[in-house]
Amino acid sequence: MRIERNYQTTTAANIEKAAKPATPATGSSVSAFQEAHQLNQAMANTSTVRADQVARAKALIADPNFPSSGQLEKVAGLLANNLSADTAAL
User: Fold this and answer.
1) Cβ contacts of residue 75 below 8 Å, gap of 6+?
2) What average pLDDT is seen over the chain?
3) Of 14, 33, 15, 13, residue with least CA distance to 25
4) Share in percent of the chain as helix, strand, coil (round to 5)
5) What would the mean pLDDT of 18-45 be, rounded to a whole number?
6) Which stretch, 16-30, 35-49, 76-90, has highest mean pLDDT?
7) What is the pLDDT of residue 5?
8) Among 3, 5, 46, 89, which is 20 to 30 Å from 29 by CA?
């Protein structure tokens, strides 16, 4: 059995320095807490349903020309291009 000496030793002082987490400045942690609290309040006051988007969706559904034939052709072209690329890789 061969034993090799480890020349890279660490002292206890170095281990203690590495183990201590950095402490943020007191003002910044209070500020971050206040910002988080304000964000939580803003989220609580925000509606989960956007009435303007619901109205837009209803109008689009009621439109017999939506999606237009041009839009359908663009989507079909994109699908065909991606399908061709996917099958070519096989």
Assistant:
1) 67
2) 81
3) 33
4) 65, 0, 35
5) 78
6) 35-49
7) 78
8) 46
In angstroms, the Cα distances linking 18 to 53, 82, 85 are: 52, 51, 51
Q: How far apart are CA 54 and CA 48, in angstroms?
A: 11
Contact indicator for 66, 60 with CB cutoff of 8 Å:
yes
Q: What residue spans define the domains of the chain?
A: 66-90
Provide the token pair at 9.
């030793």
Task: List the structure tokens of 39.
Answer: 């964000």
pTM above 0.70, yes or no: no
Dihedral sign, Cα of residue 32, residue 33, residue 36, residue 38: negative
Alpha-carbon distance 27 to 34, whole Å?
A: 11
What gap in Å lies between CA 28 and CA 40, rounded to an integer?
Answer: 18
Pairwise pLDDT comparison (75 vs 84), residue with the higher score: 75
